[in-house]
Amino acid sequence: MTAALDVIGLRKSFGGVDAITDVSFRVPAGTATALIGPNGAGKTTLFNLVTRLLPATAGRIAYFGQALDVQPPERIARMGLVRTFQTARVFPGMTVLENVLAGAHLHVRSSTLSQMLWAPAARREEMGLRARAEALLDLAGLREASGSPASDLPMGGQKLLEVLRALMARPRLLLLDEPAAGLNDSETAELSAMLRAIRAIGVTLLVVEHNMALVMDVADQVVVLDAGRVVAAGSPADIRSDPAVIEAYVGRLDP
Questions:
Q1: Which domains are seen in the chain, by residue range?
Q2: What angle, rounded to 10 degrees, do the helices at 185-200 and 120-140 form?
Q3: Which side of the chain, N or C, has fewer Cβ within a 10 Å radius?
């Protein structure tokens, strides 16, 4: 199966201390991979390396076979590798709908002048983007809040909004950093259904998440990090009972 993402021997050092050490794993196209591990395991650092917000000390990263090592972050986003962040980030002073529409800016074709003059092509493009954004808001149950300030949403709503904004960028590979943080059980169930729907239309997912119910429901494979190293990888069922995973989360149990 074609790999959407190949991480090979990745290492990142800060002041001589390795935060990521010899990390290798593959994310097959069209699947959902969960990246789990205790706090401080290096999961967000790994996301920052994949999206080139941080340069790697060593190792290689390939996206659908194309090396990312020399690509700037904005180019990576244009290639269809899109991420969210651990802390919800909405644009203050903008409505919920406007925040979702902002995710499409990489793919807007109308020139600034065309948009200012409200030319027919610009109007058609705007209507198409708006319809797509409203459909996504429907999917997340946020349509009624579309005209409200995004900053007025509760934290759970802001996390869902960030996922929708990322989808407007038309990703081929979507990296989600703790998307269920701040969600209640009902919202988490809705998010789980949405992630399965996203995977079903062919978008590859790499998800950092602590909510194990969501991980077990959505992921095709799970990669476990501990202290910057991969300690286990496999199906959700295999990972659930893996001794290395249990030790990483609860510590070694003496006989």
A1: 3-90+171-250 (3.40.50.300), 96-152 (no CATH)
A2: 130
A3: C
Assign residue 40 a region (left: φ > 0; alpha: ψ between -120 and 50; beta: otherwise): left
In the structure encoding, which two tokens stand for residue 2, read together? Answer: 């074609």
pTM: 0.86
Question: Which phi and psi (to 5°) does residue 12 adopt?
Answer: -135, 125
Please name the residue that has the structure tokens 């790994």: 46
Distance CA 35, CA 169 (A): 22
Q: Which two tokens stand for residue 175?
A: 């990296």
Instruction: Report which of 180, 192, 198, 204 is spatially closest to residue 136, judged by C-alpha positions.
Output: 198
Strand order in the sheet with 81-83: 81-83, 173-177, 204-208, 32-36, 221-226, 229-234
Q: How far, in Å, CA of 35 to CA of 103, rounded?
A: 24
pLDDT tens digits along 25-49: 999 999 999 999 988 899 999 999 9
In tens, the pLDDT along 155-181 reads 888 988 999 999 998 999 999 999 998
Distance in angstroms (rounded) separating the CA atoms of residues 234 and 173: 20
DSSP secondary structure code for residue 40 in this structure: T
